[in-house]
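Lab manual, section 2.4: Encoding a predicted structure.

Procedure: take the sequence of the chain (269 residues), apply the prediction step described in section 2.3, and record the output as structure tokens. A sample record is shown.
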Amino acid sequence: MFSRMKEDIASVFDRDPAARNVFEVLTNYPGLHAIWFHRLSHKLWKNNWKWLARSLSTFSRWLTGIEIHPGATVGRRFFIDHGMGVVIGGTAEIGDDVTLYQGVTLGGTSWNAGKRHPTLKDNVVVGAGAKILGPITIGNHGKVGSNSVVVKDVPDNATAVGIPGRIVNPNKDNGAAENREKVAKKYGFDAYAVAEDNPDPVAKAIGRVLDHMHLMDNKVSDLCREVNQLGGEVCQEALPELRVGEFVEDEKAAAKRRETAAESFDPTI
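Recorded output:
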């Protein structure tokens, strides 16, 4: 149990740059509290203590503003950021490393018994206010845009946006999506939902900038190689790291911070 709690705390540091220390996470992250209450209520539910399980779930909702039915199945390192207004139905299934933001609903579309709620596979991200309805599946690494309403399956590595949700497919012919992801990681920018046909004009403009940066990087690299072959000495030193924002941490420093925070957690306190 304590190892799972350490995992949960580490997942907060992985996905929320505002998290400063373990004590703050333990006392001020209702998403974490809701998940821990759910694990207990789910065990009670599975052992046929239905009323007690529902009562504990109701108390958790009152305390955190997050409603998770005790029958729902939740994987490892599940993270609910902010969390107010999140509702997860009783037959929902959530995989590992899933992230939900505030106002998300994993709801049903039928009063019939049986599987009525969505299945979210591993590494799914669901934006604020999104509604995922019915016994549908969001594939591995799938994303659902903020305020979208999704009623059909989303395949692996795809993004659904809009009302009703539609799949945003990357341009597979020229590898633009892959290039954007690489350059985004290089310059410290998360290119979430920056897809070729994204309806957000700002996100689309950022995507074009990333394409341009990737092209210029390649051209400069080619030019340096040709000059060096002709006897010149250019591009000998690596370019300094470009940081986006004053408070962006170095990746190694961030990893060290997360490791230290997880190791310092003492569940006996």
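Check your result against the sample. The first helix runs from residue 2 to 15.
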